[in-house]
Amino acid sequence: MSIHQLDTATSRAHPTPQPMRRLTVPAIRRRKVDGATAQPIVMLTAYTARQAQLLDEHCDMLLVGDSLAQVIYGLPSTVPVTLEMMEAHGAAVVRGSFHALVVIDMPFGSYEAAPEQAFASAVRLLKASGAAAVKLEGGAAMAPTVRFLVERGIPVMGHVGLTPQAVNVLGGYAARGRSEAEASKIVSDARALDEAGAFAIVMEGVMEPIAIGATEAVGCPVIGIGASPRCDGQVLVTDDMLGMFERVPRFVKRYADLRQTIAEAVERYAHEVRERSFPGPEAIYRED
Ligand code: KIV
């Protein structure tokens, strides 16, 4: 039994059906035929095994995003994220899922210097986590690296438009593509990644016409976030869409209000502990 197939029967984990039937990279790529995607692709971020268990059956892809910097670690940006952090969370998400394709983010500094550096980092991530593909940020400048990885057996998802790892160059997280030059660069970046062999591209925080133009311009699926419903699929940060945070970007729709639900539950628990009504008779061990 490999480390990726632990027997979780004694833990709180869902039992894993045998045999596992996980979506593959070619199956995701084939969802776009002649420029059209009949069934939009559903992707969410996941960072823990339990989160993956809850999301898995509803999603085509789970992204172990480096947004775990802010969501899990309370860091100010994705810049400090390390390979070790991605390895640990990637392995947890793979253990917690059996249906969705798991894609893992390459952290800042682990791939930009040279294709060989990217290959070594990607191999580390895939071996440690069991994920099927990596995602990296950047457009045409990264195309040779994407080609290098794909030719050596590593599926790559691109990420263009607003690229959060470049926050120190961009100066913030504002939507991209407001000028004509920026707009045409985003489309040509997407084209370059597609031609280099990326199996899908995340398009984040761009003016809608650019998202539509890029989706039409490339053969591989474009997964939008703050982009357009006309992209081939959508991704959101799960904790954002579940309402865990007070402030979220404009493009996030909150499908639940977990922050409030948690606050109410913890308030009730604290009250019951303080008045000694928890644990009640049903929650304590007695001989009878
Ligand atoms: O890290 C992340 O969560 C991402 C998504 C926002 C696409 O890259």
CATH superfamily: Phosphoenolpyruvate-binding domains
Distance between the termini: 42 Å
How does the helix and strand content classify structurally? alpha/beta
Strand content: 5-15%
Radius of gyration: 21 Å
Please write the CATH class name. Answer: Alpha Beta
Q: Provide the CATH architecture.
A: Alpha-Beta Barrel
Average pLDDT rating: 94
The total count of helices amounts to: 11
Number of domains: 1
The number of distinct β-strands equals 10
Describe this structure in words.
There is one protein chain. The strands form two sheets. The protein has an eight-stranded parallel barrel with strand order 3-4-5-6-7-8-9-10, surrounded by five helices. Strands 1-2 form a two-stranded antiparallel ribbon. The longest helix has 17 residues, at 180-196. The protein has a single domain, classed as TIM Barrel, CATH 3.20.20.60. The protein has helices at 25-29, 49-55, 68-71, 83-95, 115-129, 143-151, 167-170, 180-196, 208-217, 238-241, 258-274; strands at 32-33, 36-37, 41-45, 61-64, 101-105, 133-135, 156-161, 200-204, 222-225, 233-236. β8, α9 and β9 (222-225) form a beta-alpha-beta unit. The chain is globular. 36% of the residues lie in helices and 14% in strands. The protein is of the alpha/beta class and 288 residues long. α5 packs across α6, α6 (143-151) runs parallel beside α8 (180-196) and α8 (180-196) runs parallel beside α9. Residues 45, 63, 65-67, 105, 159, 202, 204, 225, 235, 237 line the site of 3-methyl-2-oxobutanoic acid (KIV).
